[in-house]
Amino acid sequence: MTASGVYVYAIIPQGTPLPSPALGVGAPPAPLRLLDEGPVAAVVSDAPPQLRARRRDLMAHQELLLRLADTCPVLPMRFGVVAPDEETVRGELTGARKSHLAALRHLSDGVEINVKALPAQEALAAVVAEEKQVRRLRDEVRRRPGYEANVRLGQAVAAALARRAAEAGQKIMQALTPLAREAAAGPEVEGCALNVSFLVDRHLGEHFRTEARKLADSHRGHVELRIAGPLPCYSFVAPRRGRVPAAGG
What we know:
Elements: E1 6-13, E2 33-37, E3 40-46, H1 55-69, E4 75-76, E5 82-83, H2 86-95, H3 97-107, E6 110-119, H4 124-130, H5 132-143, H6 147-176, E7 182-185, E8 194-201, H7 205-218, E9 223-231, E10 243-245
Antiparallel strand pairs: 1-3, 1-4, 1-5, 2-3, 6-8, 6-9, 7-8, 7-10
Helix pairs in contact: 4-5, 5-6
């Protein structure tokens, strides 16, 4: 198999050993190596030809980043970052050395936890009981069944579910933010009322998840909470634009 460039997994402090066995993406998995430039190093391997987002490669990439994060701060690359050659990688390490070092210090002993809030689809009874407009439209459908009445009822239910999820999501956001170093809004996800990642001290990760689960239980009539992590700190590598600092931070 002929390599098609240099696949870049992460940037880490110079002198950090690779986990064993050190294998990356590709079939068979490509051996990993370090490219050192001063105080930082890039974790790389030969890039396989015709790289695609196969599940095994996505999992290999993610697993490596999590194993690295167990021993050192990590600036993770998204899946599929390929440089044309080693000199290009070394040039990037040299040119952005100060920003890489600052980011590594910031992420030291931190993990990312993502929280998504979605409308509670099984809360229809609560919506009917608590939303006057929904009750009125439901009664109208019962008195005079018809296509248009059903459409209006469906739209009212969907709007109520989304609004209730957004309100609960903001309360959850306010409760969780003081438990983290930072919070970063994620991209909009269809049907999702809230998509936020939190930078959390590693030793507080389980406490954060426990508190998030408690909040999910207390708001389950309004929102379904999905909690993912610990994850590589993808959302906190870039500059602080658009971030929400933790209380007192």
